[in-house]
Amino acid sequence: MSVTVPVELRRAFAELAQSARARLVVMTGAGISAESGIPTFRGKDGYWTIGSAEYHPQEMATHAMFAREPEAVWSWYLYRRGVCRAAEPNVGHDAVVEMERALGDRFCLITQNVDGLHLIAGNSQARTYEIHGNIDFVRCDVDCGRTPWRLDDDLGRGFVRGDSVGADVARLRCPGCGGWGRPHVLWFDEYYDEAHFRFDSSRRAAVAADVLLVVGTSGATNLPMQVGAIALQKGALIVDINPEPNPFSQMALAGGGSFLRGSGGDVLPELASLLRR
Length: 277
Ligand SMILES: [Zn+2]
Fold this sequence. Notes:
The protein is of the alpha/beta class. The protein has two domains: 7-37 and 89-133 and 192-273, Rossmann fold, CATH 3.40.50.1220; 44-87 and 136-185, 2-Layer Sandwich (SIR2/SIRT2 'Small Domain'). 38% of the residues lie in helices and 18% in strands. The strands form three sheets. It has a six-stranded parallel sheet with strand order 5-4-1-9-10-11, with helices on both faces. Strand 9, helix 10 (222-233) and strand 10 form a beta-alpha-beta unit. 43% of the residues are buried. The structure holds zinc ion. Residues 140, 142, 144, 146, 174, 176-177, 179 line the site of zinc ion.
């Protein structure tokens, strides 16, 4: 799809490139991963069967379910991880990397995606806030003090729906205390924090943003909505790239920003090119 970037927005990005201080915050959601073929797992792709019962993602992705059925929850996550690791970053991810390279410390990325594709594309860990976690990482279920660690690369590879962790269960234990390791993601019955999910850092980034670029998220979760509201209140220019109108497009238009109806892949490469000096 061809999307025209309005002249005011081209000017704003050119100014961002010229400035020594102006800051860009990019905030991404499932839409940018969908372009790499990754489903949201909030719909039918996230259903999972345990015994004779079928569970919704909103039931599976909870600590309550992990406490009851740790092996089933791990099976679901290893299946999802297999889907994520079979996918590759797309031109939208590449453009976000280009933005970081152009702006350095004046850039920050807040992502709701747990697939790790932004890091794989080349964004830095330091400037990427994975506010819902990363499916490649594990942490101790009882927080014994061990920092999150990376899952072995082969775990989940080739998993198909219905597979179970089986003997791999021993590789999901915490090396610190021997208890359960758990997926390093934010579950529906848990809260954001700074240590694991960069809650405060994300809010600070919103306060300091001159331009907030929202891509492929419709505002279903709490922290992204806060980031948008703070940026709007502080007078940042908000640009929303989404196929459908949503709360962020309303914020963008309310503050004199732009709503570009389309996908990240349609628009981000051109915006990134405007940051080249
Ligand atoms: Zn532990």
